[in-house]
Amino acid sequence: xxxxxxxxxxxxxxxxxxxxxxxxxxxxxxxxxxxxxxxxxxxxxxxxxxxxxxxxxxxxxxxxxxxxxxxxxxxxxxxxxxxxxxxxxxxxxxxxxxxxxxxxxxxxxxxxxxxxxxxxxxxxxxxxxxxxxxxxxxxxxxxxxxxxxxxxxxxxxxxxxxxxxxxxxxxxxxxxxxxxxxxxxxxxxxxxxxxxxxxxxxxxxxxxxxxxxxxxxxxxxxxxxxxxxxxxxxxxxxxxxxxxxxxxxxxxxxxxxxxxxxxxxxxxxxxxxxxxxxxxxxxxxxxxxxxxxxxxxxxxxxxxxxxxxxxxxxxxxxxxxxxxxxxxxxxxxxxxxxxxxxxxxxxxxxxxxxxxx
Length: 357
Ligand SMILES: C[S@@+](CC[C@H](N)C(=O)[O-])C[C@H]1O[C@@H](n2cnc3c(N)ncnc32)[C@H](O)[C@@H]1O
Prior knowledge:
Blueprint: H1 4-18, H2 24-37, E1 48-52, E2 57-61, H3 62-73, H4 78-93, E3 119-120, H5 142-151, E4 157-160, H6 167-175, E5 178-183, H7 186-198, E6 207-211, H8 219-225, E7 231-236, H9 259-273, E8 277-287, E9 290-292, E10 295-297, H10 299-310, E11 313-321, H11 326-330, H12 332-342, E12 349-356
Parallel strand pairs: 3-11, 4-5, 4-7, 5-6, 7-8
Antiparallel strand pairs: 1-2, 8-12, 9-10, 11-12
Helix pairs in contact: 1-2, 1-4, 2-3, 3-4, 5-6, 9-10
The structure holds S-adenosylmethionine (SAM).
Residues 135, 137-139, 161-162, 164-165, 167, 182-185, 188, 213-215, 237-239, 246-247, 251-253 line the site of S-adenosylmethionine.
């Protein structure tokens, strides 16, 4: 084994050949030499090694393969060694696909940037490409990014009925998902459309921005035009009632007259999207609570209940950290005083409720 190419070609075969060996010390000697050789197979980005398997050249995390080798070297019995070897071989060569995403569960240890905890803390917004922080009330791109990777496959269809500045559709383009977004305010929809169209489209997906009221829009003609029948994921980020007023339009959820009115308007949107989502697939609602007349209004939980009444199964309640709006940030001292004097806490979180149909 002289050149990296030769080592790359042999790497997988040598690991496979260990499965036939009966001498534990011999296996460990081989694994130790592979562990050293792995350094020479590191790709240009410095994180992965390139290995030739039976039918492909694959990238595998250098750090992870070293950990796997370590685990094998620390075993005491041949049975345990072969168990780990077999697991490693599978993760290198067998694709174990999820039903609702493209994650290979045989390589789940590599997805260390995919969150599985119910507390999401982001310190910075992704501002790359066409993602702009300017639209007041937009969510950070990491939210759709995380959700799309876990709950959709490439080429599937995603619906966002409260599109705003189009964060979801930009992520759809980056991740190779087709997307439809509905935005009530025509002018916002137009600006969003031109921004979204300027985002690169490496996977050649379809992206459609529609201006209309999500509670009333008839999706059938649109779906027919797009030559599809249903969506595989829906992400809803409605106004948090009147915390931010988006327009004077009476159909705008931020103009609801009361909590009941807001929930009634939200329910109509949920009713309208429900038949469009495939059974067994997921819908996420991103929402926060509000504070009014000395009382905490649990808007998030009310909306969660609406979704459950509709027949959705609640799968997770995620708490995400939330940066105060610019207005509140400028009055930080004042709000701190108000909180101390008024016996309440200042909002620093919002919810991502995850449902399955
Ligand atoms: C919280 S923002 C969504 C922001 C979006 N996630 C983003 O990243 O830009 C809510 C959006 O819903 C829109 N909206 C309010 N009522 C609506 C309705 N009935 N149908 C469609 N859009 C509506 C508002 O104009 C606003 O742009």
